[in-house]
Backbone:
């Protein structure tokens, strides 16, 4: 395994700065949301206060098992993001992410609580809804850059003339943005677990988690959000520093867009979630890939 | 100040009321008052909440619900009775089925009068509740830690009041209501079930479980 | 050479012995000895033939010439006898189709052998041993015999549950061991006639095993399985006749050689193509691909060891074995490949994977979920073989190994659960964690092994995905991404049911038989061992095999996963195994009741409903009948695969006409 300096820096930065950046994003999210609703909103550091408070609360649980799954959830999210920023295989990252999310689902199931279980099943539904698009994103990046390795994709891979993957993957990019709404747990797709002041099914998957365990889930989400934005970043890479900058800016813009969507839509039914995301996956993602495949010679 | 005062999460319950106070509580969340400025979130889940806002008075139907919500909130927690009905029973006080204010069932830390309580008063009350919350937190911290040993570092979750293998302690007896009241009550597992869950051996079967025998108690 | 014959004969001898042992106490030791002997011998064979080195690569044996003739006649005789048995049973149960099929295919073969020149064809090598067949021998020898051992305990309970019915267990165990013997025959044959002989025996064994209980449903389903497999058998016979008549050979390695030569010359041989297509069709029926998936679902009426055997190590694996064997002659070149065998195989596999996964969502019967998952995974294997690249074959073989172990584990776990909780419905597995904790853990490992990173099946799925992208099978890529998303859903919800900790469940673990524990634990060891050692296995067994199988491929083009990724996967397996051992269930937090809107009665099982009524909490899973309706999916599968078959075989029909003209003009036979 050849380890580049960038990969080590990326990994270290993610492990250390990941939760801070993610938490800060969450704070910004709450503030922007408030402003969009004509409110002042909480301090930017509010998510950190929340987590600190949760850690201070009395530790309670509904059974001896459920906290274990949450711990695994956090560990695997960190592993997933770590592999991503270490420049490893994109498919590996996606599969590990699935495992991580499944741990949260199992944790919710294990409590055998009505609200948790409905949340868990909806979470599974959401995973089913976004998974094809995430995999197609990886396949699209592979078809353009010739590698599943993130470290290669960062350098533009096989793309000629300093082109960025986005040039050939506009449909896939749009599809990925669509399912990012699900992944960020934003309306209209926050079926299983909603953010800040929203409520759905009490609190869906997290209903039976409290105190430190809930804090761990929050931190895991921060980690997760950072590397989900990393996917967007990948679309813009050709190995130059200015495209890296563009990537960061666009990722932030997409985050803003997701906040806007969150505030502009009401929550939809699960049928809509599943059908819409699969339809988008087919019309944008799959169509993009098929065109790419048959017109590959034109690249 | 501990962090708990910077992030007070609320659960709101509406008892026997005209829904006036109920609506005023929600009004606090609107852009006009925007309590989220203070990090306040209306959670709807007692397990996530720090402050229990009750509007309306306590009747025979909701006694067990109020008690259970209160018990399911992890420490430290405070209760704020919003509006005159929650404080004393208000105009419903003499009704045949009304117990009176919230403090007939659970300990109340802050009383917010008004009919209906104005949003400003509610916010004031919540701020006062924060002070109570902070004190409770300090009181909790001052308690000696029993089980802070290496063994429980696994989950990073030491608990003050549960020693190895011991059944969970029943919650402290709150202020009891009048004589003729049925109280739903739960708490420690009975002896037999404790034996069963020990025999289980799966490591996962230690369910909280108190069967019918402790289901209804005359208080 | 001797070991091979002994390996085929030992289960056969045990089977015959079991036919005459009617007493349970006497049967037990015989089954155990037979199982141990078979398993040991399969391991010995693998080691002896050097599975772990290049030495095993494509070793061919001729067998003795004088005995070959006798063997040939004996096989023909047995085949004719079996055909008569089927014919008589068909008449007895009024199944005309079975009679017709058997009345067509058996005479064709006998005519070919006696009068059509089949006997004159000199077969140099009757037996072929390579790493792939040794892997299959190990799967059959280890998993298959474990299932036989399990069956001893299971059938005792089964007989107990079905009191009043005649004890026909001698017949059951006879069939199990006969099945193993025939499977060894299939995977070691190089002679198509031999393979066909064993092929028909497995068909017949499965027919009898499915119909074991002799209920109306069992008989109906067993005939469905028989008819579908006979259809495949007919295709097999036609393939034999076609290759024998046109090229004068009956050997698989010759067939592949001829095909590869003409393929690399850029002129696909139409006769070879149609032979391959017919053989793959036979494989598709046996592997229960759409539209023939219904026989495998029907097979669920049989006792669980039958299902485990059919699904994991035998029967369906014979189908995919044959297709994987053909894979150098498969493959697609873009959209122009319509009508080529590779296209047919790949599309049928892909469609089956997608639709069977969809159907599995709607099932609450654990065995049916497993059945659909088997069909889906076989679809993936078939599609991998259809793509015809070294990467695809690597993924296919990995899938075969992982699937055999994991699926067998799951079937046997469900069987044990069924006998102890009285239901095979997933909804009734509520709180299995409290009732049968060890079994629940076994099931959880099995399920995790089926779809979750970093376990085996996922690695293969990953490799499959990459090989499809590389080979340009874009349509199958789409089927895989949607299919695997759904896979996640149906396994996830089952996993959730198992892990749920339900209050006040009584532990009834003691009632499970010792043999069952032994076999299940054996499976667990295998699952974990394979998940940990698969990089070694890949490097030392599968890669050398593929290097020989596809001449002149580099190691990089075989491995979809780089070595680094494999190591990461193994490390993750370790992490996932160690974490629960260290941390599961260790909490000192205060245990509190569930949140139920403030109305929890305190026992977590009831809440206070309206009118002061105690309402029991009942949690049910989600089946999405309206979205993934089973009937709809089967219909779509039937139509789409039939279109693909129609397209493919219309090319064959065209070709047959050309062959006919060629013969008329005095071509090859004169």
Residues:
């Amino acid at each position: 395994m050849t380890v580049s300096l960038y990969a080590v820096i990326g990994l270290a930065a993610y492990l250390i700065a990941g939760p801070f950046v993610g938490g800060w994003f969450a704070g910004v999210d709450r503030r922007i949301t408030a402003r969009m609703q004509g409110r002042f909103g909480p301090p930017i550091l509010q998510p950190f206060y929340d987590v600190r408070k949760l850690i201070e609360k009395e530790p309670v649980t509904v059974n001896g098992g459920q906290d274990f799954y949450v711990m695994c959830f956090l560990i695997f999210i960190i592993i997933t993001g770590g592999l991503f920023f270490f420049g490893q295989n994109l498919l590996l990252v996606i599969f590990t992410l699935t495992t991580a999310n499944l741990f949260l689902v199992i944790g919710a199931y294990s409590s055998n609580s009505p609200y948790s279980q409905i949340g868990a099943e909806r979470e599974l539904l959401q995973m089913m809804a976004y998974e094809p698009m995430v995999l197609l994103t990886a396949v699209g990046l592979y078809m353009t850059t010739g590698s599943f390795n993130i470290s290669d994709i960062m350098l533009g891979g096989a793309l000629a003339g300093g082109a960025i993957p986005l040039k050939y993957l506009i449909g896939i990019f749009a599809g990925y943005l669509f399912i990012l709404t699900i992944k960020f747990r934003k309306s209209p797709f926050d079926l299983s677990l909603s953010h800040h002041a929203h409520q759905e099914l009490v609190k869906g998957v997290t209903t039976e988690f409290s105190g430190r365990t809930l804090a761990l889930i929050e931190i895991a989400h921060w980690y997760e959000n950072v590397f989900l934005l990393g996917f967007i970043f990948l679309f813009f890479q050709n190995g130059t520093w200015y495209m890296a900058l563009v990537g960061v800016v666009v990722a932030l813009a997409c985050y803003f867009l997701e906040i806007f969507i969150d505030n502009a839509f009401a929550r939809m039914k699960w049928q809509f979630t599943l059908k819409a995301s699969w339809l988008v996956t087919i019309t944008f993602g799959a169509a993009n890939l098929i065109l790419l495949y048959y017109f590959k010679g034109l690249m | 100040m501990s962090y708990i005062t910077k992030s007070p999460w609320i659960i709101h319950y509406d008892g026997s009321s005209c829904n006036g106070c109920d609506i005023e509580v929600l009004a606090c969340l609107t852009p006009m008052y925007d309590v989220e400025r203070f990090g306040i979130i209306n959670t709807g889940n007692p397990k996530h909440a720090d402050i229990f806002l009750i509007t309306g008075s306590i009747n025979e139907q909701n006694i067990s619900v109020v008690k259970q919500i209160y018990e399911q909130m992890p420490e430290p927690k405070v209760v704020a009775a919003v509006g005159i009905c929650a404080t004393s029973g208000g105009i419903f006080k003499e009704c045949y089925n009304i117990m009176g204010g919230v403090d007939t069932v659970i300990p109340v830390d802050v009383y917010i009068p008004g009919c209906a309580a104005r949003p400003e008063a509610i916010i004031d009350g919540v701020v006062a509740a924060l002070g109570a919350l902070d004190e409770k937190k300090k009181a909790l911290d001052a308690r000696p830690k029993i089980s802070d040993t290496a063994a429980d570092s696994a989950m990073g979750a030491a608990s003050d009041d549960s020693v190895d293998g011991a059944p969970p302690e029943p919650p402290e007896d709150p202020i009891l209501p009048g004589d003729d009241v049925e109280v739903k009550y739960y708490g420690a597992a009975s002896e037999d079930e404790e034996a069963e869950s020990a025999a289980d051996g799966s490591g996962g079967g230690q369910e909280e479980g108190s069967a019918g025998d402790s289901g209804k108690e005359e208080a | 050479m001797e070991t091979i014959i002994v390996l085929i004969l030992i289960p056969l001898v045990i089977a015959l012995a079991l036919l005459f042992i009617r007493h349970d106490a006497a049967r037990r030791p015989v089954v155990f000895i037979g199982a141990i002997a078979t398993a040991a011998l399969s391991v010995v064979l693998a080691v002896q033939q050097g599975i772990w080195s290049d030495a095993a690569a494509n070793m061919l044996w001729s067998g003795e010439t004088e005995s070959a003739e006798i063997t040939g006649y004996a096989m023909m005789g047995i085949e004719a006898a079996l055909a008569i048995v089927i014919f008589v049973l068909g008449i007895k149960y009024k199944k005309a189709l079975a009679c017709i099929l058997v009345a067509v295919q058996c005479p064709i073969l006998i005519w070919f052998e006696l009068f059509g020149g089949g006997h004159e064809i000199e077969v140099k090598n009757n037996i072929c041993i390579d790493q792939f067949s040794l892997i299959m021998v190990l799967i059959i020898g280890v998993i298959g015999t474990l299932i036989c051992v399990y069956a001893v305990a299971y059938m005792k309970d089964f007989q107990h549950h079905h009191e009043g019915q005649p004890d026909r267990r001698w017949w059951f165990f006879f069939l199990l061991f006969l099945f193993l013997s025939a499977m060894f025959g299939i995977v070691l044959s190089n002679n198509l006639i031999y393979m066909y002989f064993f092929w028909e025996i497995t068909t017949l064994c499965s027919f009898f095993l499915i119909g074991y209980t002799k209920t109306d449903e069992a008989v109906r389903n067993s005939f469905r399985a028989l008819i579908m497999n006979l259809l495949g058998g007919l295709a097999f016979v036609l393939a034999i006749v076609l290759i024998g008549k046109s090229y004068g050979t009956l050997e698989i390695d010759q067939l592949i050689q001829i095909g590869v030569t003409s393929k690399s010359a850029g002129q696909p041989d139409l006769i070879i193509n149609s032979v391959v297509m017919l053989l793959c069709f036979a494989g598709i029926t046996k592997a229960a691909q759409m539209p023939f998936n219904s026989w495998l679902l029907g097979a669920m009426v049989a006792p669980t060891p039958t299902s485990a055997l059919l699904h994991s190590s035998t029967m369906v694996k014979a189908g995919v074995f044959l297709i994987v064997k053909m894979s150098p002659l498969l493959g697609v070149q873009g959209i122009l490949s319509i009508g080529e065998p590779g296209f047919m195989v790949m599309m049928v596999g892909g469609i089956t994977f997608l639709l069977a996964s969809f159907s599995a969502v709607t099932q609450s019967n654990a065995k049916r979920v497993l059945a659909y998952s088997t069909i889906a995974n076989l679809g993936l294997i078939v599609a991998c073989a259809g793509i015809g690249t070294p990467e695809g074959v690597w993924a296919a073989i990995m899938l075969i190994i992982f699937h055999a172990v994991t699926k067998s584990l799951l079937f046997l776990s469900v069987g044990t659960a069924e006998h102890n909780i009285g239901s095979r419905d997933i909804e009734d597995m509520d709180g299995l964690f409290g009732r049968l904790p060890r079994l629940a853990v076994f099931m959880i490992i099995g399920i995790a092994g089926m779809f979750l990173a970093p376990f085996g099946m996922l690695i293969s799925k990953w490799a499959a995905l990459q090989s499809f992208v590389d080979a340009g099978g874009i349509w199958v890529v789409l089927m895989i991404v949607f299919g695997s998303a759904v896979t996640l859903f149906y396994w996830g919800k089952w996993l959730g049911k198992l892990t749920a900790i339900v209050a006040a469940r009584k532990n009834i673990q003691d009632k499970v038989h010792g043999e069952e524990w032994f076999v299940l634990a054996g499976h667990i060891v295998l699952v974990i061992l394979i998940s940990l050692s698969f990089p070694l296995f890949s490097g030392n067994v599968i890669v050398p095999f593929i290097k020989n199988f596809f001449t002149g491929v580099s190691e990089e083009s075989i491995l979809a996963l780089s070595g680094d990724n494999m190591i990461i996967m193994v490390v993750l397996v370790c992490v996932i195994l160690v974490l629960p051992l260290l941390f599961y269930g260790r909490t000192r937090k205060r245990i509190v009741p569930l949140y139920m809107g403030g109305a929890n009665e305190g026992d977590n099982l009831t809440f206070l409903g309206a009118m002061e009524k105690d309402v029991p909490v009942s949690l049910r899973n989600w089946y999405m009948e309206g979205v993934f309706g089973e009937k709809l999916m089967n219909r779509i599968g039937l139509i789409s695969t039939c279109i693909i078959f129609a397209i493919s075989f219309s090319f064959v029909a065209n070709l047959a006409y050309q062959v006919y003209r060629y013969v008329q003009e005095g071509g090859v036979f004169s």
Remarks:
- Residues 5-298 of chain A form one domain.
- The beta strands of chain A are 60-61.
